[in-house]
Write a structure and sequence with these properties.
Length: 237
């Protein structure tokens, strides 16, 4: 961010600097990029970091210092938006003997709550990823066997929501209800809860379906659905 501010706002200040001074700045700026060992480390640990570093290096050599660094900054921002728009999620299960839930793909020994699909979004929910999230949840409902009675969406990664995400949640409620599935929310922060209430979406979801934690939600689910009713019939909806 500091580099971006410098490129956009402070560029005129470099005009009167002697070329020797500018040359020293260029050398200092790209010195780390010429570290072959560090570049190998980037390649080994995270290929995207290697591509960004290589872009900055080639951009400076081909286009000059400011255009080269600006190119790398723009590419970094584009990559950030791309990643945010394709968030990863996890299906959660209860760690045996503890009121804690974690990814069952990493911890197969975790206990799955019968009839309840617990899904955690591993990035903040916002307009760029709310549609993929909705599609992912619907896909999980279709492919889970036996079908769940409820989907528990963990919003721990979200500090707030935009209006697009609020509308998407409202649409998801209706789409799941058409399939005989309830939507529950967990780890809903105060700003999100306030927005859901002001928009009327909290009433659409059901105030009783919004919980401060996953454990509280699991207790509420078990109270709402007796053991014999926790598996939805395949023909429902």
């Amino acid at each position: 961010m500091l580099v971006l501010v410098t490129l956009l706002a402070l560029t005129p200040l470099f005009y009167y600097l002697p070329e020797a001074t500018l040359g020293a700045i260029v050398i200092r700026a790209v010195w780390g990029l010429l570290d072959v060992g560090e570049m190998r480390r980037y390649w080994r640990l995270r290929r995207t970091s290697f591509v960004l570093a290589l872009t900055a290096l080639l951009g400076v050599l081909v286009y000059d210092i400011l255009p080269g660094l600006l190119l790398a900054v723009v590419l970094s921002l584009a990559l950030l938006i791309y990643r945010a728009s394709r968030p990863q999620g996890s299906i959660l299960g209860r760690i045996p003997g503890k009121p804690v839930y974690s990814d069952i793909a990493r911890h197969p020994e975790n206990e799955v709550v019968p009839g309840l699909l617990i899904f955690r979004l591993n990035a903040p929910m916002f307009f760029a990823n709310d549609e993929p999230l909705r599609d992912r949840v619907k896909e999980l409902v279709r492919t889970t066997d036996p079908p769940p009675r409820a989907v528990f969406l963990d919003l721990e990664a979200s500090n707030n929501l935009d209006l697009s995400s609020v509308d998407t949640l409202a649409e998801l409620v209706g789409e799941l209800k058409a399939e005989g599935v309830e939507l529950l929310l967990a780890n809903v922060r105060a700003p999100i809860r306030d927005l859901l209430e002001r928009s009327g979406v909290a009433q659409t979801i059901g105030e009783e379906h919004i919980y401060p934690s996953i454990e509280e939600g699991v207790k509420g689910f078990r109270a709402q659905f007796p053991a014999q009713d926790r598996q939805r019939d395949d023909t429902t909806g």
